[in-house]
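Project channel, design review

CF: Before we commit to the Bradyrhizobium campsiandrae constructs, I'd like one complete example in the thread so the newer folks can see what an input/output pair looks like. Taking histidine kinase.
RD: sounds good, go ahead.
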Amino acid sequence: MSGVIVSMRRTLLSCTSLVRNSLFGGALAALLPAEPAEAADLVDTLSILLDFNRQELAVLATALALLGFTVVAAILLMRTRVRTAKNEAALRGRIRELQLQADRFGAMLFAEPQILISWPAGDDRAQISGDIAMVLPRDSAPQRVLAFGTWLPPEPALQMDHAVDALRERGDGFQLTLTTANGHTLEAIGRAIGGQAIVRIRELSGLRRDLAETNLRYRALADDTEMLRGFAAASPWPIWAKGENGALTFANPAYMRATEASSIADAQERKLELLDSADRSAMERGLKEAAQFTSRLPIVTGGERRMYDVRAVNVGTGSVGVAIDASEADALSAALVRMAEAHRRTLDQLSSGVAVFDGQRRLAFYNDSYRRLWDLDRNFLDTHPDDSSVLDQLRAARKLQEQPDFRAWKAKLHEAYRAVEAAKDTWYLPDGRALSVVTTPNPEGGVTYLFDDVTESLELARRFDGMIRVQRETLDSLAEGVAVFGSNGKAQLFNPAFVRMWKLSNDAMREEPHIQTVEGWCQQLFDDAIVWRQIREAITSIENRVDVPLKLERKDGSVLDGMIRPLHDGATMLTFLDITDTENVERALRERNEALEAADQMKVDFVHHVSYELRSPLTTIIGFAHFLSDPSTGPLTPKQAEYLDYVTKSTNALLALTNNILDLATIDAGAMKLELGPVDVSKTIELAAEGIQDRLATDRIRLKVEIAPDVGSFIGDEKRVVQVLYNLLANAVGFSPQDSTVGISARRTERSVVFIVTDSGPGIPADMKDKVFNWFESRSQGSRHRGAGLGLSLVRSFVELHGGKVQVDSAVGKGTVVTCDFPTDQAAHRDAAE
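CF: and here is what came back for histidine kinase:
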């Protein structure tokens, strides 16, 4: 029995060791999740059972040794033997099954080239099995497979090292695709199973490689799809996709906003479309006929109608589309077209001939001035001829200047098509015209010709040059000294009179000296620093450029009248005129005028004083004359009464004259003040007429009064107005012949009251009209009128004090008309009185 037990124990231990040490115990569980688990459980169960039997056998052996050949031992031993035999048979059968399963699993695992590497928990030693030659040469050591750097490039080897370290330390699984140094593609899968780290390496070939590549392509496709979806979501333009039946399958947020849909389902349910039915039908026809559709269509988004460039293409069984906002581009395009059209219209209005040739040297545009300039047929130009054809036709019509080598001349002209800058030339045509020709290369290719008829300009230039020479000669012959200084303060122009006047040197002035230098030269004749500073500032200043008059009294006794005058080009002109003789004459005249004014003032003062002194005795004489004529003083003889009447008339006339002189003197002194108030026109005329009634009766003169019904009244000094009218009527009566008529009329205008006095006297000569208002200016002109000549002077003075004016119209032999205009505006009265 002992031998049997020992034999059975050895068999069990051998099976247990075989199962425990087999790599497939862990590998099968990793690769085949169902059967390897049962195998592992079976192995563990068997191990436990073997351990348990081993202890029981040891107890039985000890019991047999102690108790001997007892019956009880025999019976127990027999039972144990029978049970052990049964267990041994069952275990052998189970071990054979496990061995078959292990062989089957190993055949399955290594049916294709691959390597299995396992690291037990806590053990750095790796167990390697499989086709090592797949990676390394057949004569290589198996452990070299762990040196990834020997059969992998550096980057994949480092990636493999990191993945294996993470698997062994933290149990992180991985799956890598590697390419060996000899070009083989391998797949490495790492997993942590049953306390072991297991790595499987196999070659990807055939279907597996295709599957791996398909997987990679699928991932790339998924990434691209995700990227495209992200782009579509971020795009501001509506993007959509439709299926075979035309139903919406995808739409980005911009499409949702444009159609006011909350989601694709909402858009499908409510049948919300970006385009209207007509545009959708056109897009569907385009997709059916040409598999694509492109058009610029109006779309209403957010309540606003905008233009979009809609593009759609067939993709697979469906279609995709995008609508790009083209409103700004459309507006810019329209603006560009309008601008080009405006430029064309502008060029058509130019007097300069314009011709534009494109990159193929064909006429693209011309204006009417170009056609008229060369007298070309419009039909010929509308055929867009090339540049050479136009030049050949102009040469055939003898409209171009003759050239020794026309072909070389034309080739040189056509160099503008390769130039980068504009060129300018002048053509002298056989008909005598001169043309300025500017050739400008266009940025988009071609050349623009600009023709200007400069015949008149050249003629004007020649005339201008001649005029400049004439002006130069004229300037040199002037007696007035002239010098022109530029904005930099330097002398640019001068004439000989300026040099002589300031005793300068012609050579020194030709060097264009600065004004400060010229000032130093001129100070020997005139050294007033203030005046020279004023001259310098006027020449060099850039602001307040105005004419500045000068008057210089030099040391030599001469007097210069100067002027600083700014010119339009920034220069300044100095002019000096010697007015010494004129100044002397003017000084003499001024002194004489002052003496005359003093004498006139003395006369006025004398008249005023004498008139004032005459009033007192005149008043006494008039008083006593009235007293003597009073009957209470006693009767007078007829002769005495006649003499007394002469005395009264003479004293009254003398008093009136004295009062007039005093009034004029008061007015001249500026002391006259008007007593303004309402002036009744009718009453005023009546009062003035009363004073001349005796004279009218004596001379048998009729007074004709005409007063407009609406004349009314105006504001003025009634006393002075009566005095004005009285003097005018007295003057008219004095110059009128007997049995004649004197008229006075009054009318109202919009701003004044007008009095008109007429007579039929001898009239006033033309040379006397300006003198009738002067003091003591009296002419009888063959009439009975005698007087001191102060009446009309008072009339003008009083009317002007009222802010009015007096006008005299007269012709010799046709009488005189005097018009007095009194303003109704009170403001005019106040200004005149002041």
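RD: helpful, thanks. Confidence is low (pLDDT under 50) at residues 1-60.
CF: The first helix runs from residue 2 to 21.
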